[in-house]
UniProtKB/TrEMBL annotation:
<dbReference type="GO" id="GO:0003677">
    <property type="term" value="F:DNA binding"/>
</dbReference>
<feature type="domain" description="Helicase C-terminal">
    <location>
        <begin position="267"/>
        <end position="412"/>
    </location>
</feature>
<dbReference type="GO" id="GO:0006412">
    <property type="term" value="P:translation"/>
</dbReference>
<keyword id="KW-0378">Hydrolase</keyword>
<dbReference type="GO" id="GO:0005829">
    <property type="term" value="C:cytosol"/>
</dbReference>
<dbReference type="GO" id="GO:0004386">
    <property type="term" value="F:helicase activity"/>
</dbReference>
<dbReference type="Pfam" id="PF04851">
    <property type="entry name" value="ResIII"/>
</dbReference>
<dbReference type="InterPro" id="IPR050742">
    <property type="entry name" value="Helicase_Restrict-Modif_Enz"/>
</dbReference>
<dbReference type="Pfam" id="PF00271">
    <property type="entry name" value="Helicase_C"/>
</dbReference>
<dbReference type="GO" id="GO:0016787">
    <property type="term" value="F:hydrolase activity"/>
</dbReference>
<protein>
    <submittedName>
        <fullName>ATP-dependent helicase</fullName>
    </submittedName>
</protein>
<dbReference type="InterPro" id="IPR027417">
    <property type="entry name" value="P-loop_NTPase"/>
</dbReference>
<keyword id="KW-0547">Nucleotide-binding</keyword>
<keyword id="KW-0347">Helicase</keyword>
<dbReference type="InterPro" id="IPR011332">
    <property type="entry name" value="Ribosomal_zn-bd"/>
</dbReference>
<feature type="domain" description="Helicase ATP-binding">
    <location>
        <begin position="26"/>
        <end position="198"/>
    </location>
</feature>
<dbReference type="InterPro" id="IPR014001">
    <property type="entry name" value="Helicase_ATP-bd"/>
</dbReference>
Length: 609
């Protein structure tokens, strides 16, 4: 695949760009597995693509989803003094004869016969977080590799990959992105070259072979520093809105919040004041009607609006005028998040919510490119978005405003995981990690911080699993457990509203730790533990701490009932407790954690049963 011959006209690559290229080549020399390179917006992905295309021995197809990216990537390759074809209806060119072809995915999928010769050895996909694969039966990776789509609806990128692999089964596939995750799915690759697991085993992209973190880019002076300021005096409250199945909010719901909202004039006044000494301002509105209202509040003659309905020539004219700094404010509605390059932008105003950390990173990235005299970029968020600017490696939303990235060492393999959590000084008192992300012998470490136990084999599974990954048996649904328990005469179900730990003595005067669970109606269930001997402490850690610790895997082991009661803040209560009567006494039979079922109270569970 590789042509290592020197080239006198080659542009000067930055060190991280050179490392990215070298890592890709090293990976494909030893593997045909699809790979990913992660580079922040503004880091020069086009130059990395150009260098890889130049050094490839076979033919190269570079895909992008918009014509602006096709044109941009093509231009970087031409900077080497080489020629390449463009296959894009939007650019009025459908050429496919040269060694390197830059194409728009929609045009290529409509002209696949021009790419079916088997000469293409490398497929490069820009903005690869947009790649989706349908699932039916086995893994999406194997489905794409085989080219057998069956009766399912096949995605555009999947059609291209399947066709190219029919002609050349060992086709190398490389994706580049600034945001390597998809809404509702998490990371789009399985393994990270630093030795951690990020995405599912069935992910199409197997390895992230290089990543340049945003924080490093800023520290090294390659990107402008983002300075986030959340709207305090004026903001929109989108907290009651529920996203649709695709993760986006319905326009009518957004309009219900922003249309005629008294906060809008205050917000725009705040934007104007903060941008008084700034060069370029991009405003991301929630809906078209909202954008039109915002435009009416901005200085006349200095502002413009671009939406999906703006005709192409008019859009290009407005963008050119904005880039020439003849306009200061550019309002848009979800159309300038990728493929838009205006380095002088030093204010990003976000007036819309997003459930996608990837989209949020793309929006912020519009203002991070360097420009003469530019010292930083203000990120003004008036929508209460929860995403962390410098933690794109965390694909879940921040659980609450007090959570931060914390390091949690795996007690089995020692890998330093990064999860959302809370600290008390240097001590992690809570985290939301489920499974260790470390790699052992090329496979993911099996340790789970939180888990669901299979009643058939005792195996630990992910808390959202429906079938046991060890024996294959169906895991009992929590709602079924609640209904079944409430049908029994000698069973008690508590929806836990509180948990109390007390160092006391039992009926025989022996020191014990008493754990009492309370519900809203005053009902209680108790558990008793001895902590006087190492054997008792081991049992307590195994049967109680593994589930109750707010920071599982932290290694905390109380040496007495008094210590356990004094440190009760380290523990979390279950959502439900099921008790069964044995003789005259009640014993705790089962506890349900991380409950996401239909029944919010034990009473409703009983009513449904």
């Amino acid at each position: 695949m590789v042509n290592d011959a020197p080239f006198s006209h080659a542009p000067q690559l930055r060190p991280y760009q050179t490392q990215a290229v070298d890592n890709v080549i090293a990976h494909f020399r030893g593997s045909d597995d699809p790979a990913v390179v992660v580079l922040p917006t503004g880091s020069g992905k086009s130059l990395v693509i150009a260098e890889l295309a130049r050094r490839a021995r076979g033919r190269v197809l570079v895909l992008a989803h918009v014509r602006e990216l096709v044109e941009q990537n093509h231009a970087k390759y031409l900077a080497y003094g080489l020629e390449a074809d463009i296959f894009s209806a939007g650019l009025g060119r459908k050429e496919s004869g040269r060694q390197v072809v830059f194409g728009s995915v929609q045009s290529v999928v409509n002209g696949l016969d021009d790419f079916a010769t088997g000469e293409f050895t490398l497929l490069v996909i820009d903005e690869c977080h947009r790649v989706t694969f349908t699932r039916e039966g086995g893994s999406e990776r194997h489905a794409a590799a085989s080219g057998k789509a069956g009766q399912r609806t096949v995605s555009t990128y999947e059609k291209v990959i399947a066709r190219l692999r029919q002609a050349r089964p060992n086709l190398k596939v490389l994706g580049l992105t600034a945001t390597p995750y998809r809404l509702g799915e998490g990371f789009l690759y399985h393994r990270h070259y630093h030795g951690m697991v990020k995405g599912p085993e069935a992910a199409f992209f197997r390895d992230c072979v290089f990543e340049q973190p945003l924080r490093v880019m800023v520290r090294q002076g390659y990107l402008a520093e983002p300075r986030r300021i959340d709207g305090a005096m004026a903001f929109y409250d989108f907290s009651r809105l529920t996203p649709q199945r695709n993760g986006q909010f319905a326009e009518r719901d957004l309009d219900g919040v922003v249309r005629g909202n008294r906060a809008t004039p205050q917000i725009i006044h705040d934007v104007i004041e903060r941008a008084r000494d700034r060069e370029g301002v991009m405003i991301f509105a929630a809906t078209v009607a909202h954008a039109e209202e915002v435009l009416g509040l901005l200085p006349s003659g200095e502002s413009a609006l671009v939406t999906g309905a703006t005709p192409g020539p008019e859009r290009e004219r407005l963008i050119t005028t904005f880039k020439a700094r003849e306009l200061k404010y550019l309002v848009n509605v979800a159309v300038l998040t990728t493929g838009f390059d205006a380095p002088h932008v030093d204010v990003i105003a976000i007036l819309r919510p997003t459930e996608s950390v990837g989209l949020y990173q793309q929006i912020v990235g519009r203002g991070l490119r360097l420009s003469p005299g530019k010292r930083d970029c203000l990120i003004l968020d008036y929508a209460g978005n929860p995403w962390e600017l410098y933690a794109p490696e965390i694909a879940q939303a921040r659980p609450d405003g007090e959570s931060e990235p914390v390091q949690v060492e795996c007690p089995e393999c020692g890998f330093a995981n990064i999860f959302w959590g809370k600290r008390d000084g240097d001590f992690v008192i809570e985290h939301h990690g489920r499974r260790c992300q470390g790699l052992e012998g090329g496979s993911q470490c099996t340790f789970r911080f939180r888990f669901k136990v299979c009643e058939q084999c005792g195996g630990e599974n992910d808390i959202a699993a429906r079938a046991c990954g060890h024996c294959g048996e169906r895991l009992v649904d929590p709602d079924d457990k609640l209904r079944d328990a409430l049908k029994l005469r000698h069973a008690k179900v508590l929806r836990v509203s509180g948990m109390q730990l007390e160092a006391t003595t039992n009926g025989r005067g022996v020191p014990r730790l008493k754990v009492t669970y309370h519900d809203e109606d005053g009902e209680t269930l108790d558990e008793w533990f001895g902590l006087d001997t190492p054997a008792q402490q081991h049992v307590f850690a195994r049967v109680f701490l593994r589930q109750h610790l707010r920071a599982p895997g932290s290694g905390w082991r109380p040496g007495s009932a008094e210590e356990a009661a004094a440190e009760a803040a380290r523990l979390r209560a279950p959502d439900f407790v099921i008790g069964r009567k044995t003789g005259r006494h009640w014993r705790v039979d089962e506890k349900l954690f991380d409950y996401v079922g239909r029944y919010r109270t034990a009473d409703t569970a009983g009513a449904e049963g």
